[in-house]
Design a protein that fits this description.
It contains eleven helices and 14 strands. It folds into two domains: 236 residues, no CATH class; 137 residues, no CATH class. The relative contact order is 0.14. Strands 1, 2, 3, 4, 5, 6, 7, 10, 11, 12, 13 and 14 form a twelve-stranded mixed sheet that branches. A hairpin with a 3-residue loop joins β12 and β13. Helices cover 34% and strands 18% of the residues. By secondary structure, the protein is α+β, with helices and mostly antiparallel strands. The radius of gyration is 20 Å and the shape is globular.
């Protein structure tokens, strides 16, 4: 837990965190008008006082033997069992922040900003769990996500490692650059019936699986980003969690003829994704770019491969269902981009816009590390299934 000095630093950092949100340059993140910023609420101060500055080592933490009671058959029944096991093993204080009422308004409290700059996220910081409880959280997240390298839970771990890396080089003390500050919650009560969301998020990450009556009805909004990029060494491993996404998008752009590239080029400059945090209505109705129906079968396969790097972050059976839908909708899907085909320079941008699918990838200049270079922001949204299709 944090000592009194760390708590004081976290509270003092409130002003710094406000400026940091501007420094991150999040186009879709409202920053308010000019003049004095509002004083932080008691709740915001209390959340920031809970921040930690240590690593939780989620990649190497052991899943406890206690989860054996839930069996090994993957699926919703095992997921519920693991969740009940965790809830039985936490204190009342932890449970109060872990098990919350469901509402879309609460689910919308996600962000790409570090924890100290966006204290509205609901839930429990990973560092507030005991080591054994973190092992149970790990089992839950692994059950709900894809199991490929650089996908699903492995991507979560590497993004947490990025915050540990930033914390080792940044002078922005108190804003929450540490894997300690990944946050985890259940919005609504996990059960065989009813609606609830498995909420996990933090700096550069948002995971939102919404279930109704035991069925996954929404896996979005799903935000992915990382700094430093493309690779870094931290927590005893090399990390490159979004390399496959960048390469998949670049493969599409490299395949375009000059004529196709001209048709796909968007007007203007996109300095960040449009449909980011607190920007649920930012997806334009009109599609802009080149119709995927005008591309070759090989190029269409490249587009599906790029989509799969996001859809593959959820469990295999549910991912297959989403991929089938997006494949069916491919003739009515449009590709657009600006910048270079390599997607390495600041303001390079690409999006795939279908009847249901909205997928964006944008390159930003490095800000948290102070190192030269660029890093990605990206988001997968489903126009009909965001927040499980719920309105409130």
């Amino acid at each position: 837990m944090m000592n009194s000095t760390s708590r004081f630093a976290a509270i003092v950092a409130i002003t710094l965190a406000s400026f940091l949100s501007l420094a991150h340059g999040v186009a879709a993140q409202p920053t308010g008008g000019g003049g004095d910023r509002p004083e932080p609420t008691e709740e915001e101060i209390a959340v920031r006082a809970r921040l930690g500055d240590t690593s939780v080592l989620m990649g190497s933490v052991q899943i406890p033997d206690a989860v054996d009671v839930c069996g090994t058959d993957a699926g919703y029944t095992r997921l519920l069992c693991l969740i009940d096991l965790l809830k039985e093993n936490v204190s009342d204080q932890i449970l109060e922040n872990l098990q919350l009422e469901y509402s879309v308004a609460e689910a919308q409290n996600w962000s790409n900003l570090p924890a100290g700059a966006f204290p509205a996220r609901p839930g429990v910081f990973l560092g507030e769990f005991s080591v054994e409880q973190r092992g149970m959280v790990k089992a839950i997240l692994m059950e709900a996500t894809g199991d490929g390298d650089n996908e699903g839970f492995d991507e979560m771990v590497q993004t947490l490692n990025a915050d540990d890396y930033i914390g080792s080089v940044s002078t922005d003390y108190g804003v929450g650059y540490a894997s300690y500050n990944g946050i985890f919650a259940f919005l609504g009560t996990p059960a065989e019936t009813g609606t609830w969301q498995l909420y996990y998020g933090g700096h550069h990450f948002a995971f939102a699986n919404t279930y109704t009556d035991g069925v996954l009805v929404g896996a979005t909004p799903s935000f992915r980003g990382v700094e430093p990029f493309p690779r870094f060494y931290m927590n005893s491993r090399e990390n490159m969690p979004l390399m496959q996404e960048r390469e998949a998008f670049s493969n599409i752009l490299r395949s375009l003829s000059d004529e196709q590239a001209a048709a796909a080029t968007l007007e203007g400059t996109y300095r960040d994704i449009l449909a980011g945090p607190q920007a649920d209505n930012a997806i334009p109705e009109a599609q802009e770019g080149i119709s995927v129906s005008e591309l070759s079968e090989e190029q269409q396969a490249l587009i599906l491969a790029a989509i799969e790097t996001y859809v593959g972050d959820i469990g295999a059976a549910d991912a297959a269902r989403y991929m089938a839908k997006y494949t069916t909708e491919l003739p009515d899907t449009v590709l657009g981009f600006t910048g270079t085909t390599e997607l390495t320079e600041a303001d390079d941008y690409i999006r795939i816009h279908g009847p249901s699918l909205w997928l964006e990838f944008s390159m930003q200049t490095n800000k948290s590390t102070g190192e030269a270079g660029n890093h990605p922001h990206s988001v997968w949204r489903d126009i009909f299934d965001d927040y499980g299709g719920n309105q409130e």
